Each structure stands twice: as structure tokens, then as C-alpha cells.
Amino acid sequence: MTKFAKSLMADGVGMNYHEHGDMNMMGMHSSFYWGKDAIILFSGWPNKSLGMYILAVFGVFLLAVIIELLSASLAAIRTERNPMVAGFRLAVVHGFRMGLAYLVMLSLMSFNLGILIAALVGHAVGFFIFKAGSLALQVNEEESYE
């Protein structure tokens, strides 16, 4: 061990895997649970308030629907005549969609079942609204040509 590393350990800077410092582990779950007492995306939010928890559940639902909307919009962007403009627009929409998907993923890491159900239902509703209709039209068009 180097002299620098020894001095850091002596100052208490080294990592102790059994202590969590100032982190309050009381609100952190490692298995799925029901309840409004969740920490979603930000420390102290929704702050054990039922109204804020409902807002968080609705927010995750809405994020999932928007992700499906952005996924469906990729097909419309591909019809752009200029390939450079289409590529740029696809990259911007993809980056934004992935950012929202990561926010949903981080919300799910709260292990709250209400948040999980909101994300799943949001993705299903978004798929039904924005993609299922166009898929059904494609199937009907293929059948009409036969």
C-alpha cells in the first residue's frame, strides 16, 4: 500500500462496506413492496404524501406512454427526403427517448409495485394507442392483396 493510500485510510477516507455514512437506509428497499412511502428519482420525494405518490405514479405512467409515442414517431421521421436531416432527427428523438427510458428504469429501482404497474400499463397503453393500430392496418393491407 502506498504512503498516500495509508494516509487516506488513516484519515477515515477509505471505504467501509458496512457503514453507509450519512445515507439513510431506512427508506431503501431491496425487494418489491406496496405503499406510498417510496423514494422515486429524488431524495425525499414523494415524501410520504399520498397526493405526491399518486402524482409520481401518474408521472411514471406518462413517461412510459411518451416513450412509446417517441418509438412510433421514428417511422415517420424515416420518410424524410434528406438522409442527413433524417439521421439528425432520428438521433435526437432516440437520445430523448433513451433519457426518458432511463428515468423510468431509475423509478423502478424504488422497488415499489405501484410504480412498476404504472410503468407496465403506461407502456401497454402507449403501444396500443401509437403502434397497435398501424400494425393492424399493415396486416389488413397484406390480406387485401391476397
UniProtKB/TrEMBL annotation:
User: Where does the chain cross the membrane?
Assistant: 50-74, 86-105, 111-130
Keywords in alphabetical order, please: Copper, Copper transport, Ion transport, Membrane, Transmembrane, Transmembrane helix, Transport
Matches recorded under Pfam families:
Ctr
Give any Gene Ontology cellular component.
plasma membrane
Which is an annotated GO molecular function term of this record?
A: copper ion transmembrane transporter activity
Q: Transmembrane among the record's keywords?
A: yes
Stated membrane topology is: Multi-pass membrane protein
Q: Give compartment(s).
A: Membrane
Q: Which family does it belong to?
A: Belongs to the copper transporter (Ctr) (TC 1.A.56) family. SLC31A subfamily.
Query: What name does UniProt use for this protein?
Result: Copper transport protein
Specify the species: Rhamnella rubrinervis
